[in-house]
Specification:
By secondary structure, the chain is α/β, with parallel strands linked by helices. The chain is about 40% helix and about 20% strand.
């Protein structure tokens, strides 16, 4: 008999993924440590996803909204969750049965922890693959390591609800890289430990992945880095590392605009501003 945790709320956003959401939900219900509640935010589905969710209504709570995007869906779940801990699961991923039990055990031994991730297994187009080196996970003080690419996957994370509320949740203005943005903002001030067990199966290669539909994602990483530069209190070391990556990404976008023959003046202006900031150290 699985044990129940009175503290954990699971948040799963979904849009038009009837079979994938069934797989995701079944993996939560198979947990060796069951959560206190499972919140599924239906982000304006237009197919039979709602019918699939109806078949689980005895064990989940469904929140319906117009199509406002994954960040708005997750944020609504955070606001309405009853648990002190939030565990995220993307609707196209699944958990292994020990996921929540292992994280709860770690948190009990390390009460200072406010956010925790685990390793994951990747499946692309039905085959197990090794993640590219740039996405290899790290634990602890990962701010600098997280600047280039997102190395924290939402489906692996459990986080204090209070920390998510303090940091403002996911940025709803970002159509992609919203997770990159949130974990970086948290990593400014907090370590993000990593459990070595792969407790999540992360699926990719399917057509409805946002990351495969939106080109030049560095545009949105740049927006995030600029916001963090303006709004967060960074150490000198953090600021220097951020400026290095920000300039690198701006120069990449600038040269891309030149190759396409599109307007590159915005990038030129920003490159000059951040080069001056870097050289002045002010």
């Amino acid at each position: 008999m699985a044990k129940y945790s009175p503290q954990i709320s699971v948040i799963i956003p979904v849009r038009n993924r009837p079979e994938k959401i069934r797989r995701a939900l079944d993996s939560v219900l198979a947990q060796e440590l069951l959560p206190a509640e499972i919140l599924v935010i239906d982000d304006g589905s237009t197919d039979n996803t709602a019918e699939v969710l109806d078949s689980y209504l005895s064990v989940i709570k469904v929140l319906k909204q117009d199509n406002n995007g994954v960040s708005a869906a997750r944020n609504r779940g955070i606001c309405e969750a009853a648990g002190t801990w939030i565990a995220f699961l993307d609707s196209d991923d699944e958990w292994k049965a020990e996921k929540l039990k292992l994280q709860a055990a770690y948190l009990e031994k390390h009460p200072e922890t406010r956010i925790l991730q685990t390793e994951e297994t990747w499946i692309r187009n039905g085959k197990f693959v090794n993640p590219p080196k740039k996405f290899l996970k790290k634990g602890g003080n990962i701010f600098k390591a997280s600047l280039e690419n997102c190395i924290v996957s939402p489906s692996t994370v459990i986080c204090q609800r209070s920390l998510l509320m303090e940091t403002g949740g996911f940025d709803e203005s970002l159509p992609v890289c919203e997770d990159y943005d949130l974990w970086l903002r948290i990593a400014v001030n907090y370590h993000i430990p990593l459990l070595p067990e792969a407790t999540v199966i992360k699926y990719g290669g399917h057509k409805d992945q946002l990351s495969t539909r939106i080109p030049a994602m560095d545009r949105f990483r740049v927006r995030s880095l600029e916001k963090i530069f303006r709004e967060e209190t960074l150490s000198d070391e953090q600021e220097a590392a951020l400026l290095d990556v920000l300039l690198q990404k701006l120069e990449y976008l600038y040269h891309g605009a030149l190759r396409r023959g599109t307007d590159s003046s915005e990038y030129v202006g920003k490159i000059n501003i951040y080069r001056e900031r870097k050289s002045s150290g002010k």
